[in-house]
Design a protein that fits this description.
This protein is α/β, with parallel strands linked by helices. The protein has helices at residues 10-18, 38-52, 69-74, 89-101, 164-177, 182-203, and strands at 6-7, 26-31, 57-61, 106-113, 118-127, 132-137, 156-161, 209-212. A hairpin with a 4-residue loop joins strand 4 (106-113) and strand 5.
């Protein structure tokens, strides 16, 4: 990620989101490489907003848009699960557009089940009353065909900034926390997670706002 962007703290971001005038849905992108804390931040932002305005904010992770393993196997992409080409970016665009227009009483969205390692369709409901929808994922700012079309759907974009060295450290720590042994952790990090993370760091457009993660604990 490069270019001009404003550095901000989590508390400042909460204040900015909470200050949105009521009556309109906004989509806020929280982007960054795997292991940098996107899920943790998105959940904290929604919780802080809902503390004073219950039900006003919700989170939609893009992980639910993973292709099924059967499709990945057929395309020879199963070992690269989590790479940009393993997501249904076209379906993601249309679902975000539907969420942004907010013309229905509720919209069901898919959720990635980390225990099953597959996406479950219609596993979460986003009601029409949600005004701040926080979309989190690795590739929300990716500067590639189809992915770059997502930019028009976001009212605000936030990037989590982490160095490549810190990213590697966190990715190893995450697998170790799951009880994965050294050799398997090394394979997962070096052959898949880290290449995906470097794609995010090196091929993403600048965000409106940036939060530094180089000195914060993060796992997702």
């Amino acid at each position: 990620m490069s270019g001009n962007t404003q550095q901000i703290t989590q508390d400042q971001l909460v204040e900015q989101l909470a200050a949105y005038p009521p009556g309109q849905r906004r989509l806020v992108a929280v982007a960054g490489p795997p292991g940098c804390g996107k899920s943790t931040l998105a959940a904290a932002l929604a919780a802080a907003i809902n503390e004073t305005s219950p039900g006003r904010a919700a989170v939609f992770p893009m992980d639910g848009m993973h292709f099924d393993d059967a499709i990945l196997e057929g395309r020879g992409l199963r070992p690269r699960k989590g790479a940009p080409e393993t997501f249904d970016v076209g379906g993601f665009y249309h679902l975000l557009d539907r969420l942004r227009r907010n013309q229905e009483s509720e919209i069901a969205v898919p959720v990635f089940d980390r225990e099953l390692e597959i996406s479950r369709n219609a596993a979460r409901i986003i009601p029409q009353s949600v005004e701040v929808l926080i979309v989190e994922g690795n590739y929300l700012l990716l500067d590639r065909p189809l992915w770059c079309d997502l930019a028009a759907l976001f009212d605000l974009t936030v990037a989590l900034d982490v160095s490549a060295a810190e990213l590697r450290r966190r990715l190893y720590a995450r697998w170790y926390s799951y009880g994965v042994e050294d050799a398997e952790a090394s394979r997962r990090v070096e052959e898949n997670d880290l290449p995906n993370g470097l794609t995010v760091l090196n091929q993403s457009r600048s965000a409106d706002l940036t939060i530094s993660q180089n000195e914060r604990a993060a796992t997702t």
